[in-house]
Amino acid sequence: MANTKRQSIMTAVKTRLQGITVANGYDFNLGSHVFEWRTTTLNDNEMPGIVFRDIQNIKIEGGPVAYFRWGLNIEIGIVTQGGASITDIRKMLGDIYKAIGTDPRWGGLAILTEQPNNDEIQSEQQERKITGVLIRLQIIYDSPLWEA
Length: 148
Fold this sequence. Notes:
The protein is an alpha+beta fold.
């Protein structure tokens, strides 16, 4: 069975995030550690890393005849440890935005990607200092009726 449009988009998101490397013109090699729906804490050797999730798919009015229009809500988190400065964290955030912006139609899979309304930087200090950035975006796409 072929992948759903949603799965194809998530695969494209993972591939795009894995392309965030210094060799590809980014400031950091975030693409070395990309995890989809990772629920456990990243190990030291996996940071900085990216964890992303498709958290919600909302049906939107206005799609073409015989299609549903969807808004796929995705969270992208950057996780760093100890020595990352706030300047570096902002550059990592910039790398994510740059990667998303290279093709907001995801190779024709989507109609558009809505730019996030905000992002959050959080820091937690327990056994070790962990800093994270959370970005929420929505990818708008059409799929045939009763397919996601």
